[in-house]
């Protein structure tokens, strides 16, 4: 058996992030989604209609980048955008029925499988504790709660 690799905590987090990303991206590419699109669709599926700027902030995406991602999702009939009454600068975004079906039948199912693989051998209590730790780390690093 080889020597155990010693990794500082930041590299350990980075390696886990990349391992998860390397499972998610191909699974999403199989259903025609590019990086960034699944998290937008997931957020909308879980939270419903919201302003484009709120969506960008919630998903940690720059305003210029989110416009490009949303343009493609809109062209594919997965989201719809509309002006909010009284404020032409405020653009609301929501899933279409096609987008909702894609989320329920493909995205959610694939992500749940990847999460299940990642958390295999973790008890339910360990999973909940792990989630609390991640939320606390986020708050420590950003000063904001992770809702």
Automatic annotation (TrEMBL):
It holds the Pfam family MarR_2. The keyword Cell membrane does not apply. Keywords: DNA-binding, Transcription, Transcription regulation. InterPro entries: HTH_ArsR_DNA-bd_dom, HTH_MarR-typ, Tscrpt_reg_MarR-type_CS, WH-like_DNA-bd_sf, WH_DNA-bd_sf. One of its GO terms (molecular function) is DNA binding. Residues 1-139 form the HTH marR-type domain. This is DNA-binding MarR family transcriptional regulator. It comes from Victivallis vadensis.
